[in-house]
Amino acid sequence: MESMNHGIGVDIAFLLLATLAVVTAWRVFRTDSMVRASFFLLVSFIAVGVIMILLAAEYLGVAMFFMMAVEMTVMALFMVMFMMNPAGLNPMNMVHQERISIGAGVVSFLVLSAMALLAVFPDRPVSAGLDPVRSLGNEMLGDSMLIFESAGLVLLTTMIGVVVLSSHRGRYGAATEGSLPPGLEPGGDPAGKPEDDEDGGHHHHHH
Amino acid sequence: MNLEELVLPVLMVFFMLAAGAYTVAVLDRVIAGALGTPQAGSVWIAPLARGAWLMTQHANATEAPDWRAWRLAPALYLSLAAIGLAVVPWSGSLVATDLATSVVLWGSVEALATVVIFLHGWSANTLFALIGGYRYVALGLSYILISMFVLIGVALPAESLQFTQVVASQGELWNLIRQPLGLPLFLIVGLGMTFWGPLNLADSADLAGGTAAEISGPPRLVWDVARAAMLVAFSGVATSAFLGGWLGPWLPGPLWVVIKMLAVLLVLLLLGRLLPRLAPERCVTLMWVVLLPLSFIDLVWAGVGALL
Q1: Is residue A188 part of a domain?
Q2: CB A21 within 8 A of CB A54
Q3: Is A19 found in the same domain as A74?
Q4: A83 with A135, same domain?
Q5: How do residues A110-130 score in pLDDT, each as one tens digit?
Q6: Is A135 in the same domain as A88?
Q7: Contact B150, B230 (CB under 8 A)
Q8: Helices assigned H by DSSP within chain B
Q9: Across the interface, do A66 and B101 touch by the CB < 8 Å criterion?
Q10: Which residues contact B182 (CB under 8 A, 6 or more apart)?
Q11: Cα(A11)–Cα(B140) distance, integer angstroms
Q12: C-alpha distance across the termini of chain B, in Å
């Protein structure tokens, strides 16, 4: 390792941030609330973003902060809106399909470890005068602009489409039919909705 | 080397946090007094006395809150204000963090503030705080978008995402005049993100205090200081982005920054005392239907200006 020209502080920071990223990512699956899970994931991403800044990817690291902040907020809120746990503070199990997940986790860990240990990484030091922010901007908004812009537009269309297609199915039935809470017993009358009287005129005052 | 790179910037930011929050408290009391609201005690001593009183008070507890998030949220909001103050340049060389992407870092501060304010309301596990948190998220997304377009506008003539470059690009003409829509929009975002005055919708009286309905004692002190410090950070960023930062005749640069920041704070606090609070539904409409299109116009204006 001849290119170790950074201080010990960078190494210590990397180890602390990597630990934080792994521990919070693990907490995502051990916590019992969707809001907590989202924001543990956000902390993990922020730690990765700081590691990217340590790797001199200044724009990508900082972009990670604001992209993930908005993304995790929206994700937490959409999960609360679309799922059965309105406030997000009630406990719920965050894991399912455990056998497949364990298998997938072990396989991807082995593949990534093998790549880290066995792959031959290119050693092409860039010139000291390179401005990473400017060169990234030229890359994204230069020749590759059409690809990035069309990918972004497709993703946006997909997101809006998914919300439009799924949002009419509410927690208590289709939105077009009006939402009624489920009955206290299966097939029973909606809970908390007293049945109207035949004439419905009890509260009207006739003069 | 460590002294200049680590200790001085940290000291600078801590000084700004304390002095800035105190200035906001004093200025707000002076303005309230001038507008006819009687103020008890001296305007100079009263904020300190309130802070000392809050320190001695008991920190309230609710039934089964998310303790970590609830106690951390005020501290995190204060840290975000500190990050904002760290990117404000005092002169061409005197700046706590002269990151090449400091404009984007400020954008992240705004985005992360949404998370922290939501967590503050959510983690108390009580009704009004939760409504305040959700209300802020609904509004916060539009604040972030408006602020982002306005800030891209000031980065265009500078051809840089660095606040020192943004200031340097205003040597001939301040962005205040070059992009007349920018500063008003940015100040509205500032009032919104600190939920101050007319845009105090997250911690408003109609929600019995909103996200802060259940906090007392030291956490309340940190939350109040953090909001004031965030307002100062906004005035610092507004100064650098639109008012030419340290540029100005006769006086030294840092003094110009202080004068301009005080002027922006004065405008913000006056607006906070003079305007009535908006209804949240109307505020969402105002943001998306009026102010967001205005920020598009500001960006197109800036783009055309940069091309010419």
Answers
A1: no
A2: no
A3: yes
A4: no
A5: 999 999 999 988 888 877 778
A6: no
A7: no
A8: 2, 8-34, 46-56, 67-86, 102-123, 127-158, 163-168, 175-178, 182-193, 217-242, 253-274, 280-285, 292-307
A9: no
A10: B150, B153, B154, B175, B176, B241, B242, B298, B302
A11: 36
A12: 44
Same domain? A12 vs A83: yes
Q: What is the pTM of this model?
A: 0.86
- Do B245 and B167 contact (CB within 8 A), yes or no? yes
Compute CA B279 distance to the chain's CA centroid, rounded to the nearest angstrom: 21
Q: A69 lies in a domain?
A: yes
- One domain for residues A27 and A77: yes
Number of domains in chain B: 1
Cα–Cα distance, A129 to A134 (Å, whole number): 11
Q: What integer pLDDT is reported at residue A182 of this predicted model?
A: 66
Q: Nearest CA to CA, how far is A136 from chain B (Å)?
A: 12
Give the mutation candidate from A38, A46, A66, A80 for the B interface (greatest B CB count, under 10 A).
Answer: A66
B108 touches chain A (CB under 8 A): yes
Per the structure, the complete domain to which residue B162 belongs is given by 2-307
Least Cα distance to B198 among B150, B114, B267 occurs for B267
- Give phi and psi for A86, each to the nearest 5: -60, -45
Question: What ipTM is given for this predicted complex?
Answer: 0.89
Tokens 């997304």 -> residue = B141
Q: Which two tokens stand for residue A198?
A: 């035949």
The answer to the question of residue A104 being in a domain is: no
Which domain covers residue A150, as residue numbers? 131-174
Residue A66: which of B108, B118, B137 has the nearest Cβ?
Answer: B108
Dist. CA A36–CA A40, nearest whole Å: 6
* A20 and A82 both lie in a single domain: yes
Q: For residue range B171-205, list pLDDT tens digits in order.
A: 888 888 888 999 999 999 999 999 998 999 889 88
Q: Is B30 exposed, middle or buried (0-12, 13-18, 19+ CB in 10 A)?
A: middle
Per-residue pLDDT reduced to its tens digit, A54-74: 988 888 999 999 999 999 998
Contacts of A78 in chain B (CB under 8 A): none
Distance CA B260, CA B170 (A): 15
- Partners of residue A190 on adjacent β-strands: A183
User: Is A116 within a domain?
Assistant: no
Residues A136, A77: one domain?
Answer: no
